[in-house]
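step 3/5: co-fold with flavin mononucleotide
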Amino acid sequence: MKFREIVMQRYATKRFDGRVVPDEKVRELLELVRFAPSAINLQPWRIRVVTDPAQKAALKPAAFDQEQVTTCSHLLVFCADPDYEGLIARLEALLSANQVPEEMRQMVVGMARQFTGEMSLDQRLAWSTAQTYLALGNALNGAKALGLDSCPMGGFNPVTVTEILGIPRPLVPVMLCPIGYAADQPMPKLRFELDEILV
Ligand SMILES: Cc1cc2nc3c(=O)[nH]c(=O)nc-3n(C[C@H](O)[C@H](O)[C@H](O)COP(=O)(O)O)c2cc1C
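step 4/5: write tokens
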């Protein structure tokens, strides 16, 4: 499928038909998510994959009873990771393991420390959240590319979702992304005209 077709055919699915997506396909999708861009390549996201029907049922009221949560095959819970000390340490290890020269490593790590060192916890979380949305974008378009449907969902209570899933601190669930096969029909794509979004 051409990228334009993927973009035009993807839509916020409201109900799935309950069919299970093969795990290999979900893995393929998660690989697309993994390669999303991020500032200084810090990849400040973590994803919980929920398949257990009991957990989905428990999560539904925390998401305003939206049907996608229980009818989807896999529910991807995108969490922002504001722990920059941990992320920088992991990035440093990744660069070392890939024989990135010392000088380059120090430059990247120094920049990351300088950027994040000046941030409040709220700023860190906002920065991580913005980037987690980029990873989510890969999931949404990636799902369509793999013949799947999806829905970006911000309508949920992150505190309750954290409790139900036992998401460890300091991760914060910022978006839900149910994946599966649609049982509804897309609405017409309504968007502002191109001239209206150019400034
Ligand atoms: C940040 C964000 C939060 C959203 N939350 C929900 C949601 O909780 N439930 C839902 O059904 N759709 C949700 N949507 C989907 C939008 O309503 C949808 O993308 C928009 O109306 C455009 O429709 P389309 O995606 O089908 O083209 C959300 C989208 C975004 C980007």
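step 5/5: annotate
Residues 11-12, 14, 66, 151-155, 189 surround flavin mononucleotide (CB under 6 Å).
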